[in-house]
Amino acid sequence: MPKATFMYWQKRLDRENPDKELEEKIVEIRKANKDYGYRRMVGELRNQGYLVNKKKVQRIMQKLELQVTSFTRKSRKYSSYKGKVGTVAPNRINRRFHTHIPHQKVTTDTTEFKYYE
């Protein structure tokens, strides 16, 4: 390992955490409000007079492992029903699909599925 790299990290490890006060304030707010994520936390910090960026608060909360667990997304079962959308064509065929003339009755069915890669 080069000497310059070693010395750089020695100095870096000796440095005091510049965000220590902000981290303590975030932990204090978190103890009072368990449901605060980084967005609400930024608002609360600004109300208390701290000028902070939301990304900085988000990084600090991730570092301190302060994730909100009460508002998780629930997996939903697939349902293609979206209510009555637009105009519905009249049912003229009434389940009578058999005919003697080719291409007299042509039907289609369109189904939409969500697909995530």
TrEMBL record:
The HTH-like domain, residue ranges: 19-69
Q: Which InterPro entries match?
A: HTH-like_dom, Transposase_IS3/IS150/IS904
Offer one Pfam family short name for this entry. Answer: HTH_21
What's the name of the protein?
A: DNA integrase
Tell me which species this is from: human gut metagenome
